[in-house]
Amino acid sequence: MIDLELPLELSAEPPAFVSEEAAGEWLEQLPLANAPQAQAILTRQLELLSGIALSLDQRLRIIEVLREPVLFVQQECLRHFSARSLPLASAEQAGYDASLRLWRILETNYLLCLQNSLAGQLPDQAAMAAQRAVAAKTGELFASIAAGHCPPASYWYRLHQIYRAAEALQVSLRTVVDNCNTNPETTLAAAYVEPLLLAAARPLELSQRQLELVARWARNWADKVSVLAAEPTQVKTPPLPIDITSGVAISPAASPRVAADWRWLEVTELRRSLKRRLLALADGESPEILQLGSDCAQPDCGELLARIYQLWCKGGAARRDEVRPAADCELAAGFVAIHFFVSGDIFAQP
């Protein structure tokens, strides 16, 4: 058994609905025109929902009704804290924290469904629950990067745990219908690849516009990547190594390896697809015809695609210093304060 470390306590207060129909009726009163308010209301109801006992099918149906409004509200609230100067202002930080809270409680409800499926009696529901949980984690990752933050190690550990659970149920490659996805017919494996590709693209080095494009490409092309349980030996394209017991996305190639704990992203098909597009762009083909996006303009599009090609398909480029979470630091703002901490003396106006 794989422990997904889910909450076990029961809610003292019941949610406003305990059926798919009641949830639909409740949504008619949700103030979607006020996204932050709707976000808080949805978060509260999903938290209450996670604290009551429901059958797998019943819980899954309810949160499927809520999912599309959640995605809409999260997209609307993203602009309140994305691409801002760091550290975030108090209102921006509050918006960021609220966004993460909703992503995490949505994920928790789907994981409760997955946990109930670990015996394997309902593979279709298990595949859907796992894919939706990973999609919520991808939303959380995008919000973190848009706010200029590195996700903690616990983020990647939980993502790998979800994939391991789906593997244990043998549903990682089962087709799942997701009308909120660019590819309506997808799999848990493709959903798992998407945040890993986004992380491999060094997203904190990208502008907000570049981040949006790379996130779109990672979603569109994730199904071109295979997740392998054994390292491929007859491929020219270096695979991306994943230690599924770790708290990192892409592991260093030289890390010690225990075979059962490692997976490899085989990117040969992705490399061929990107290479064709790069050659076509060089020949003057438009990004829109190449399905790079109607809002993607040359020469920036080609430069970004070439960068992604190197990071995803050519082993990346070595960094002098790896990005990692830092300890808390103190800031001194203003010339008088800076003068004091640099010189040790209180500034006196001449």
Your description of this structure?
This protein has 350 residues and is mostly helical. It contains eleven helices and five strands; from the N terminus they run ααααααββααβββααα. The protein has helices at 20-27, 35-50, 56-78, 90-116, 123-146, 153-168, 188-200, 208-221, 268-282, 300-313, 335-343; strands at residues 176-177, 185-186, 226-228, 240-243, 262-266. The strands form two sheets. Strands 3-5-4 form a three-stranded antiparallel beta sheet. It is globular.
List keywords for this structure.
mainly alpha
Q: Strand order within the widest sheet?
A: 3-5-4
Structural class: mainly alpha
Mean pLDDT: 89
Query: Main beta sheet, described?
Result: 3 strands, antiparallel
The ordered string of helix (H) and strand (E) elements is HHHHHHEEHHEEEHHH
Number of strands: 5
Low-confidence stretches: none
Report, as a whole number of angstroms, the end-to-end distance. 72 Å
Task: Count helical runs.
Answer: 11
Alpha-carbon Rg, integer: 22 Å
Helix-residue proportion = 40-55%
The geometry reads as globular
Give the percentage of residues in beta strands. under 5%
